[in-house]
Amino acid sequence: MPKDAITNEPLIEMVNVTKIYPPDVAALQDISLRIYKGEILFLTGMSGAGKTTLIKLACCLETPTSGRIDVAGRDLSLISPAGIQRMRQKIGVAYQDFRLLDKQTVFQNISMAMEVTYASTKAIRERVEELLTMLNLSDKRDKLTGDLSRGEQQRVALARAAANRPSLLLADEPTGNLDLTTTKLVINLFRHLNEEHGSTIVVATHDESIYAETEHRVVALSNGHLSDHPRRTPQQGELFEA
Ligand SMILES: Nc1ncnc2c1ncn2[C@@H]1O[C@H](COP(=O)(O)OP(=O)(O)OP(=O)(O)O)[C@@H](O)[C@H]1O
Ligand SMILES: [Mg+2]
Fold first, then answer.
1. CB-based contacts of 190: which residues, under 8 Å, 6+ apart?
2. Are residues 82 and 22 in the same domain?
3. In a shared domain, residues 68 and 5
C-alpha cells in the first residue's frame, strides 16, 4: 500500500502488555504499541529481547500475562476459540524455526495453507507457482522440504505465510539464512503484498541491512522494553527504498 494510504486505524493495539514465561522470565514488560493497517513495521532488538514473543502474541499463539491486545478493534481475551481460529486464517506467520512438514514437498507445504480456505485446485496451483517464481524456488517444487537448505526452507515458510494474501503477515527473522540477492526477493514479496493487497507487515529482524535505510517505522525491543529506533533517511536505490 502506498505510504499515504496507511490508515491511522490500528490493526493491532497492545496496551501495557507483559509476558512472563514460567517461572519468572519477563520476555515483554509493559509494552504499548499500535500497528496500523497497511503499514510495514520492523521490530528489532538483540537476541532474547522479546521479538518472537511479541510476534506470538500478535498471532494469538501465546496470551499475555497482563495487559490488553486488540486486533481489528476486538479485545482478544473476549473472543471465543472459534473466533480466534477464524482470525488466525487472516494472519500469515513465517516462524523463526520455519515449522515446515519435512516429509512433505514444497508444493504440499505451501498449498496446505490454502486448502483450509477452500480455494480451487487451479487457484492453489497458480498461487503456489507464482510464489515459487517470486522466491526463486521453482525447481524445488516437488522436493521434500526436509531435504532443502536452511535458506530454501526459510523461503518456503515465507511462501506459505504469504499464500492466502493475508491481511497481516508476521515474519520472524525472515532473512536470517539468506544472501543479499535472495533477501531482495523476500523484500519484494513483502512490498508486493503490502502495495497490491494492502497487507500489514511486521518483520522481526536482526538484519540491519533490511531496515537501516527504510522509511517504514522501526521499533526496537531491549530486554522486553520497547523504544523507537533511531535511523536515517533512505537514499535512492537502497534495499528497501519506499
Ligand atoms: N517458551 C518459553 N519459556 C521460557 N522462556 C522463554 C520462552 N520463550 C522465550 N523465552 C525467553 O523470553 C525471552 C525473549 O525471547 P524471544 O524468543 O522473544 O527473543 P527474541 O528477541 O526473539 O530472540 P532471538 O533474536 O534470539 O530470536 C528470552 O529470555 C527467552 O529465553
Ligand atoms: Mg526470535
1. 40, 169, 171, 201, 203
2. yes
3. yes
Minimum-distance ligand 1 atom for the alpha carbon of 22: 4
Contact 195, 201 (CB under 8 A): no
What does the alpha-carbon distance between residue 189 and residue 42 come to, in Å, rounded to a whole number?
A: 15
pLDDT digits (tens, 9 = 90+) for 94-121: 999 999 999 999 999 999 999 988 899 9
The dihedral built from the CA positions of residue 2, 130, 100 and 96, taken in this order, carries a sign that is negative
> pTM score > 0.90 for this model?
yes
Q: Is the CB of 205 under 6 A from ligand 1?
A: no
Give the chain's radius of gyration (CA, Å). Answer: 17
Specify the CATH number for the domain of residue 44. 3.40.50.300
Q: Ligand 1 center to residue 27 CA distance, Å?
A: 6
Is residue 58 domain-resident?
yes
Residue whose CA lies nearest to ligand 1 atom number 29: 48
Report which protein residue has its CA nearest ligand 1's atom 3. Answer: 21
Question: Which domain-ending residue is among 165, 190, 225?
Answer: 165
Whole-number Å distance, alpha carbon 125 to ligand 2 midpoint, is 31
Residue 49 CA, closest ligand 1 atom number: 21
Dist CA 209 CA 41 (whole Å): 15
Higher pLDDT, 135 or 237: 135
**Torsion over CA: 1, 131, 82, 95 (sign):** negative
73, amino acid identity: G
